[in-house]
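Weekly structure sync, notes
Attendees: PL, DS, HV (note-taker this week)

Item 1: Phosphoacetylglucosamine mutase
DS walked through the input record. Source organism listed as Umbelopsis vinacea. Sequence as pasted into the shared doc:
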Amino acid sequence: MTQMILDQQRIRAANEIHPTPDVKFAYGTAGFRMQADKLDSIMFKVGIIAALRSLKLNGATIGVMITASHNPEEDNGVKLVDPRGEMLEQSWEGLSTELANARDADTILSVIDSIVAKYNINVDNKANVIYAYDTRPSCPALVASLKDGLDAAGADSTDFGLKTTPQLHYLVKCINTKGTNDAYGEPTEEGYYVKLSEAFKTLMKGKPAMPTISVDCANGVGAPKLKEFLKYIDSNVWSANIVNDDIKTPGKLNYNAGADYVKVQQKAPLGAVLNAGDRYCSFDGDADRLVYYYADDAGVFHLLDGDKIAGLAAMFIMDLVKTAGVDSINVGVVQTAYANGSSTKYLTGQLKVPVSFVSTGVKHLHHEAEKYDVGVYFEANGHGTVLFSPEALNTIKTSEGRTPAQNTALTQLQALTELINQTVGDALSDMLLVEVILTHRHWTCQEWDQAYTDLPNRLAKVVVADRTIFKTTDAERRLVEPQGLQQEIDTIVSKYSNGRSFVRASGTEDAVRVYAEAATRTETDSLALAVAQLVYDRGGGVGSAPSI
Ligand code: G16
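Item 1 (cont.): predicted structure, written out as tokens:
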């Protein structure tokens, strides 16, 4: 039995109050996520995991964010944040899943023992955990369960209240770096706004203000937080009109709004009437994703997704690095299989920037991006950021320009490192980055869009009896199971010009995702439908047959 400071009696008691339902839990793309009414036991166990993780890291502060991001309002979930603000180290996912599925108190205590033994955890340390949550109605009850777990584990914990996911990541990093040479910022919400707004003002200095942007906040936590941020910015410098800011009316969160809706449906969200020439963007429910869009003169909707943002950011940073005379700093881009084929061609062919591919999930992209001096990573769904290595940060900080132009570029690069939330994708920070670039280039969305033309693409979801039977390889671009299915997909794809399609189980929703792209819209839709039908037939589809 466990020797640790964890209070066994409290764990047993908490397990009585938070019984584990008959559900197979799995640590997904971004933590545990499902219908909120099944998550009570998970939250108390996550409290214990967060405490153990902190103990393992000598009491460093760990973050817990209660949110289901882009999912419907009735879902909820939890994301764990490691000390530097990145996602929980992947090697902890297996045992976390085991703990999540442990039912009786003895099994729970024995899994805790295994974690202590496996990671050689020093139980004399004190655990420190901070937590925050989004606007979902299920959050207060889940916060209480989390607190039971944290208390049972003897952790010191702080409730940071309503926050966006990236704000919580920011806070974790600030707390852990406070007082060091790498201090990331003031560990308060105000500190976050001050850091971003000061950098933004530096970058916008002397530039003519662009027309007001419309920001769809998906009726989520991004709305009050963006309103708060606006207080730090003179509206003559930059202004935003917030749409979908109703966080009170039940059922509105992410409903026909937000980054995921706009990306998947390829149309404007509810409440946004597009005027040609204006700029629009959408956050998702916890404000860690961003997509832009606009209407052309004919009123046709155009999407500028994570791929377009990656291209824009890489182009701008590469130019700045060159102008500043610090071109020893290398820039790389990280994408996933969902990246549009045209975007990869643009990055490698025109920008001549190296591109690496990893599996879906910020946790994968983030670590790959760390391999570059400046790693730009974006998923097509709008989730991403830019990472500057410690060496790059040092070069930017200490270099002295030989000309005024070089000095200006160095100042701007320095401000960019402050503007960009380097802990995780952050819709607010990413939006400010895009706004800076468009302002510097005097570009409209349409001009930005001209970098390359997306191949028509389609994302579909197929609900099947058991999505875990879909196993992939090659950065999730090919299926290895069910056997033979990949060959059948290849046969279908070969009938379409520039066709590409792949299939993978979602790690945040109970569905299999189907991606398709091809030379024309008609071909793309036909390809997506054919592959979705195949998945439905071979995977034991549930409910009505797929339609596009
Ligand atoms: C999370 C992850 C993202 C991922 C998305 C969809 O985003 O952080 O990296 O792209 O889920 O994942 P899947 O296709 O496995 O469902 P979010 O914004 O929902 O937290």
